[in-house]
């Protein structure tokens, strides 16, 4: 028996799945899920509050695949296994992955080129694990392309024109504005980094100039100190020579004084006898 599971308005897809077990319960679950998914932003919280946690089964997996048609069945199974078969946590995790995949596709419109569009489609359809999907989303958000204001306006108009309702248009506008805000933040950060890089270059050049000036001044001071040391040694040697000369002169003076005293003393004795000292 086939049951048509319609996705929320923000996805705009339909998926048919067949399962022979619990068809009435499955249809009831789909009705409850569609009622709870009226708002794309509050879908995960409402589902987590309304649905209890129950064991993993084929009907549960099929219901989640119908609720999230953009997600591969392998991804749904991995998320259920990672959440320990807790349907509340699984719905929250799948909702986060689905919203991140939608934001990634909105951040890469057709103007970004076919390669960017293929990357956005592969993010939502390729069978990757939740961790790899988060890493891909982080890489895409970390390196947005530069766009003009007119390109952003065109992207906003194009996304809103593709909406299927008011809530879908609001979600699409929110995604484009978030991408625009993220691009502005990255541009401002890049500009600040460039300013800081230029300032760092100027400070590095000034530091090099100051280092050279200090080295030159140190060489001058060292040369002056060495010349003053040589001059001091020369003066010390001259003082020592002068001291030696002074000592020799003092000895010579003392000797002359003694000779003079001796000479004057003998002359006084000869005159005392009334005769010159040289006359006998």
TrEMBL record:
Pfam families: CUE. Residues 110-147 are annotated as: Disordered. One of its GO terms (molecular function) is ubiquitin binding. It comes from the Eukaryota. Residues 56-99 form the CUE domain. Residues 110-120 have a biased composition (Low complexity). This is CUE domain-containing protein. It comes from Symbiochloris irregularis.
